[in-house]
Amino acid sequence: MVRFRKKQEWEAFLEELKDALGKMGVAYRETGRIRSEGALCLVRGKEILIVNRFLHPMDKAELVRREVKGRDLEGVFLKPDVREFLGG
Q1: pLDDT, block means (10 residues), the chain with 88 residues
Q2: What pTM did the predictor assign?
């Protein structure tokens, strides 16, 4: 399991998660105009994960995990720690 202590470590890991989302065909967008943590949305036929930009990077990573949970990751190349974090 991924256990980082520093904010910078979570930020670096979040970048890896963003790359993984791109490989799954999901766009990642941050905004400060929402009151919730964020959610996976369908906009004009494309999946977009909209995330509150004011969240801590660890919370953003948890949101990514929660929103892509249950997806088939078999055909997607992911780094081992990213795959483990996403539960694949």
Answers
A1: 85 96 96 96 97 97 95 90 87
A2: 0.90
